[in-house]
Amino acid sequence: MKRTIVFLALMLMTLSYGQETKPVPQITVSGEGKVKVIPDEATVSVSVETKGNVAKDVKKENDEKIDAVLKLIKKMNLAPADYRTQRVSLNPQYDYEKKKTSYNATQTIEIIVRDLNKYDELMEGLVNQGINRIDNVVFQSSKLAQYESEARKLAMKEAKHKAEDYVSVLGQKVGRALTISDNTQSYTAQPVYARFKTMAMESDAAPRETLAMGEITITANVSVNFILE
């Protein structure tokens, strides 16, 4: 009797194992969604760099120019949260031929320009107040989260459409998704580097546009595993 019970138990376990390991028809596809938008704001990184033979004088001159720059920014009614000091340095530089030490002071300010109509006016004012290095300009969108969501939806639609294309000749249908993997790389706005000489203006020169914004592309990538019915 015990042998019969053990035999039946083994049979049930075997049947159960067989059912569990039965392969499920499925397909894995990737999808990509892209949203192109015109940027509506920019992040600008600018610096004041001063040089001289006396560290205290070099630092003082740099501070005075930065003070004028900050007053200009406030005058243009930029929100306090939209500008910050990014880097401050004072470094000695030794000339081995002349056997003399000079000093180089640098302060860098990062500014978010939320109204691009103010961009040219701001950049001209910064140069006039002592900015002598424009490190980079990055165009971006204030609605990034919204456009990222749109790109993800487009990526999922493309993945499903691709799966339907593959199985359309097999007489099968695409069922529910088993797994979804987000393969999107973090969005990074591309910088537009601008040298000082491209921004400098003569005092009697007419205002002019200095950069072309173009478009930015926000991309989402997914990998989806669908059951086939």
TrEMBL record:
Native species: Flavobacterium pokkalii
Please, which domain of life does this record's source organism belong to? Bacteria
What name does UniProt use for this protein?
DUF541 domain-containing protein
Instruction: List, alphabetically, the PANTHER family matched.
Output: PERIPLASMIC IMMUNOGENIC PROTEIN, SLR1258 PROTEIN
Q: What InterPro entries is this protein classified in?
A: 26kDa_periplasmic_antigen, SIMPL/DUF541
Where is the signal peptide, in residue numbers?
A: 1-18
Coiled coil stretches, renumbered: none
Q: Which Pfam families match?
A: SIMPL
Q: Which UniProt keywords apply?
A: Signal
